[in-house]
Amino acid sequence: MRFNVCVVASLLLGACGKGPADQSPGEGSERVVARVGTKILYPRDLAGLLPANVSKTDSADLSRRYTEAWVKKELMLNEARNKAQLDESEIEKKVEDYRYSLTLYEFERQYLREKLDTLLPKPVLEQYYRDNITTFVLKQTIVQAFFVKMAKTNAQLGRAKILFNAADGKSKKELALLCARFAEQYHLDDSTWVDFEKLVSGTPWMDLSDKSQFVRQTTRVETTDPDFTYLLRIRQARTAGQTAPLDFAEDQIRSMVLNQRKVQLVKELEKNVYERAKTNREFQIY
């Protein structure tokens, strides 16, 4: 079967005026952008696809690409309808199932947006953590640490080492300023837990055969490669298989608690809808 494909050369929406020159036979005064068999693409179909303040050149390019994609899609649909062994009733059933699922999804999403309490005070997180402590088992090594990577040739390296090994707050502030200017990479917050492998990625410590043993036995260490010096000071460490600290698991806990609340709200919604319909005799089961 032959398909008539007609793509109009000019796709600028600003040029899509209505007049005799824009008319297509049998289509009244509205201009046709493309046609595949009996399917027609009009300028109004493109109107909502273009970003605001887009240039004429970009507008034409976006319109052209969308039109070509539309033509290819319609051609493939026609090809499928004519050559594939299709069970139309099965397709309609799947479409109806999808429509049902999508409708419920959108309804539940809007309902949850209105009803879900997203406020999670610290005591709520702590209680959930205690009640489900066995759930929060580490799969990786984590540390609370200082880390600095600086070029070996940098004139500030010596000063950085002195500040790095100092424990007072003034030295930490000076080190932060120095690192911001001269360090290739640094992490100066030893109150938060971070993934050890992510922290030392690209350093000689990545080649360690037993990183868990290393972090357990190390407090301060320095190493080098041909170009850089690496400084590491570990305050605390936990390894794979140990319980994750609350602070490290907090994002996961928030997600789990909110998900529980969502499930509970949807169950309550289903129950309320059913009970209301039952009271109002809106359904019968035979």
Fold topology:
Layout: E1 5-7, E2 34-36, E3 39-41, H1 43-47, H2 56-83, H3 88-115, H4 122-131, E4 142-151, H5 157-165, H6 169-182, E5 185-187, E6 194-195, H7 196-199, H8 211-217, E7 220-224, E8 228-238, H9 246-279
Antiparallel strand pairs: 1-2, 2-3, 4-5, 4-6, 4-8, 7-8
What order do the SSEs take from the amino end to the carboxyl end, as H and E? EEEHHHHEHHEEHHEEH
The helix content is 40-55%
In whole angstroms, the N-to-C terminal distance is: 50 Å
Q: Could you tell me the radius of gyration in angstroms?
A: 32 Å
State the helix count.
9
**Average pLDDT across residues?**
89
The structural domain count equals 3
Assess the beta-strand content as a share of residues: 5-15%
At a glance:
The protein has 286 residues and is of the alpha+beta class. It is built from nine helices and eight strands.
